[in-house]
Amino acid sequence: MLYFTKKDQPIPQGYKKINDKILLENYLNMDLDNNFIISKNEWMITFIKILANDIKSMEKEAPDSILDRIKELSDEFDRYDKDGNKYLEFKEFKDIISNNVYISE
What we know:
Layout: E1 2-4, E2 15-17, H1 20-30, E3 38-39, H2 40-52, H3 55-61, H4 65-80, E4 87-88, H5 90-100, E5 101-104
Antiparallel strand pairs: 1-5, 2-5, 3-4
Helix pairs in contact: 1-5, 2-4
């Protein structure tokens, strides 16, 4: 199970950081055109698919909550794209995941 947190929050009990092998597998899964970088479109498509699996709870939030989530995803990508080239290289991706996502032990 994955646990998402804000940067600099402590690791919750029962969770650990994701190892490099899992990071690389996820990075390559997001790289839909296999060019070894993640475009903003690839980023958005990946997370929209994840959000689609949670449509029931999003409908409870508000009829247009998906729009808010899409904006948040777009803003997140821009924050993580440190060099501003509109792509996430593996180092940028690793920094995101290493600081925000944990896996259960």
